Amino acid sequence: MWSNLILLHSNDLIVKPLDDNSLELWQTCQRSIAFSDNRIFPISESERFYKGYEVFRGYEAYRFLLEVVSGLRSKLFGESEIQAQFRDRFREEKLTDSTFSLSLLRLRDQILEHTKQIRSKYLTGIGRQTYGSIADSYLQNQKSVTLLGTGKLATSVLPYLVTKGRNVNLVGRDHTRMSELQKEFPITTYHWEDYKPGEEAIVIASSFLPFNWESMIESSSFILDFREMTSNNHHYKNYTPLSKILIDLKETDEQIQSVKMDLQYFLTELTREREEEQIHIMNGWEDLLV
Predict the structure, then answer these.
(1) SS3 24
(2) Cβ proximity of 32 and 14 under 8 Å
(3) How far is CA 181 from the centre of its chain?
(4) Residue-level pLDDT at 290
(5) How would DSSP label each residue in 93-161?
């Protein structure tokens, strides 16, 4: 069904995201992806890159997207937050009013169904698969925690922090989002400029810190840093960067490698099934209007 699918992907920060009515964009903290159809956004078969994006076509694009949404291409193998981000981005009210977008709803549903199969069959019980569960495991002995950020990562970690009677402060810039989260969770919220950290544990789930925060959190009892790009913070006491988290997770590597081998066969089978559908629907997205 997806022989005409075009997927553009980049792991790099895109300063000027693609701006084209023929594209639907999806951005996470790790990647940027644009979707289209070859009949309304034609790219030569010889082109492997387009404006800094890697180009995937047809069923290769479908398989790549399935691997991304299943967490198989995440730095934390098998993490589940990416699935929720994909589902949230492609809710009906977030799509443009076009026939192409309606086709994306079918792509969304099929990807989520196959992701569910992959997770239930291969990823159950493989280590700590969410950033929230990782944060909880590192903060076992912490009674007071301050979470920096209100984005996707922060909101996926927050439910784990409020367990076990912890006192949780949420610090950010988006007053509306903080108000929404305060209604949902037993937390106290502060704007960046109104909060002065003390000796509590700090969880950094924001891509940046205000200019004075690097020095302000030096007295914290524990710092868990989920930022991918960090400076040399060895002067912090009890500091755990994302790189250290990923090293600690290598305890499950042997199991993961075995699962990866099985997954390759399963992914090939799922992709083959999609290709066989093309026999019955020769034009791919049959209701796409150019």
Answers:
(1) strand
(2) yes
(3) 20
(4) 41
(5) GGS-SSHHHHHHHHHHHHHHHHHHHHIIIIITTSS--SHHHHHHHHTTT-SEEEEE--SHHHHHHHHHH
Tokens linked to 244: 């250290």
Cα gap 270→275, rounded to integer Å: 9
What residue type is assigned to position 254 of the chain?
Answer: E
| Cα atoms in the Cβ-side hemisphere of radius 13 Å centred on 115 | 26
Whole-model pTM: value is: 0.63
- Write out the two tokens for 22: 């023929």
Please tell me whether residue 34 adopts helix, strand or coil conformation. strand
pLDDT in tens, 83-132: 988 999 988 888 777 777 888 899 999 999 999 999 888 887 665 557 88
Nearest one of 185, 224, 222 to 203, comparing CA atoms: 224
CB 129 within 8 A of CB 80: yes
Helical (H) or strand (E) element with 81 = helix 81-89
pLDDT in tens, 125-172: 665 557 888 888 889 889 999 999 998 889 889 988 998 889 999 999
**Chain mean position to CA 268:** 23
Q: Counting every residue, how long is the chain?
A: 290
- Token pair of 24 as six digits: 């639907």
- What residues does 168 pair with on adjacent strands? 145
Closest C-alpha to 226, from 239, 238, 241 = 241
Concatenate the DSSP letters of all residues of 243-283 into one string: HHHHHHGGGGHHHHHHHHHHHHHHHHHHHHHHHHHTTT-TT
Kindly state the average pLDDT of the residues 1-19. 79
Distance CA 33, CA 203 (A): 28
Reported confidence tier of residue 288, pLDDT bands at 50, 70, 90: low
Tokens for 287, please give them: 């209701």
Six-digit token string for 198:
């003390």
